[in-house]
Design goal:
The longest helix has 25 residues. By secondary structure, the chain is mainly alpha-helical. About 40% of the residues lie in helices and about 0% in strands. The protein has 12 helices and 2 strands.
């Protein structure tokens, strides 16, 4: 039976109203986000070409590790979206680290580095794993400097990157160079084009996914230029997370009020960076979305809602800067180059 004219008008009116409501919902939340910049600048670390080129070399340098086999790229693999897709990364002896290695892409935009935020910048973060006994295992900063000073190619590169310094080959400058390189490890996606005003950049399914993402409450923590990474949040906010033994940020701050708090991950490239959480315990993105809704927001999502959110998350996959991340030629060792 065909609907009467008044009923037809009512049905059409409700459909249009629903469409506008969805559009309004999405538009209302868009100011919470920003497109990626060309770089993530630092007031204390000028991004010069010489410094960035040195940082790229140091990122791939394995002679500063114990055994000479580990580099930053061993766990944060640049052509695999900045991680190794393992729950825990093996170090120089094959022993596993205590937390999952997060991606380095877009990390310079975050409020801090590491899951617990113990490093305020990528420059400080870069210095940590090199000296970690489980990870790269260098005995101390002096050893790293000695290795670098033993190679004339590095001595010249440090002089070019830090002109005017009497002794430019220092461990702090190592961190600054790697940090400078990482500050341009950014992955723009169709989401950025959408934020810049190209409303055709996202498909209808992806737009609906953002609406579902926003309506569900995910935007409370996952917002800003990195779609996350800008705050700390308790894991198990509304419902206790099962079998949680990692105290998170409270081990750093010594505050019980921050027990089980972790830095909120960025959702950029999230389809490529599983398994998920600080311990890599969640294998699939679908499961992660369900668990976040349940334990963080107190909601049970339908299959349709999960699929809709995942459709939006796929739009956050960016392009890798292929030329920028090519492995560089490293300075040659000399007879004076020490081994740990």
């Amino acid at each position: 039976m065909k609907p009467t004219a008044p009923l037809l008008v009512l049905v059409l009116g409700l459909s249009v109203s629903s469409a506008f409501a969805q559009a309004d919902l999405s538009d209302a939340f868009l100011p919470m986000f920003m497109p990626l910049p060309a770089e993530a600048p630092s007031p204390g670390n000028e991004l010069t070409e010489a410094k960035i080129n040195l940082g790229r070399q140091l990122y791939f340098e394995n002679r500063i590790s114990k055994g000479g086999k580990m580099s930053c790229n061993s766990c944060h693999i640049l052509d695999k979206y900045g991680n190794d897709n393992l729950p825990f990364s093996p170090g120089h002896e094959g022993k596993l680290g205590g937390r999952s290695s997060p991606s380095v892409y877009n990390a310079a935009l975050h409020v801090a580095q590491f899951w617990d935020g113990r490093a305020p910048s990528v420059e400080e973060q870069a210095k940590g794993p090199v000296l970690n006994p489980v990870e790269m295992g260098a005995p101390d900063a002096n050893f790293v400097v000695k290795v670098l000073k033993s190679m004339p190619g590095y001595v010249e590169a440090f002089k070019a990157a830090f002109p005017g310094e009497a002794d430019p080959v220092t461990y702090d400058n190592f961190g600054k160079a790697v940090g400078a390189f990482e500050r341009k490890l950014l992955t723009p996606s169709k989401w950025d084009q959408y934020l810049k005003g190209n409303k055709d950049a996202l498909s209808a399914e992806e737009k609906k996914g953002f609406s579902t993402f926003a309506k569900t409450g995910c935007v409370t923590c996952h917002n800003g230029v990195a779609v996350g990474g800008m705050m700390y949040q308790k894991l198990g906010l509304l419902k206790a997370w099962p079998d949680l033994t990692d105290n998170g940020r409270s081990d750093i701050t010594k505050s019980d009020s921050e027990k089980f708090f972790f830095k909120v991950p960025s959702l950029r490239n999230i389809t490529e960076t599983g398994p998920y959480l600080h311990n890599g315990s969640v294998k699939t993105l679908d499961e992660m979305v369900r668990k976040m809704a349940e334990y963080q927001l107190g909601k049970t999502l339908s299959d349709e809602e999960v699929n809709s959110i995942v459709a939006f998350l796929k739009a956050l996959k960016g392009d890798l800067p292929a030329d920028y991340i090519k492995a560089p030629k490293l300075p040659e060792s000399t007879p004076e180059t020490p081994k740990a």
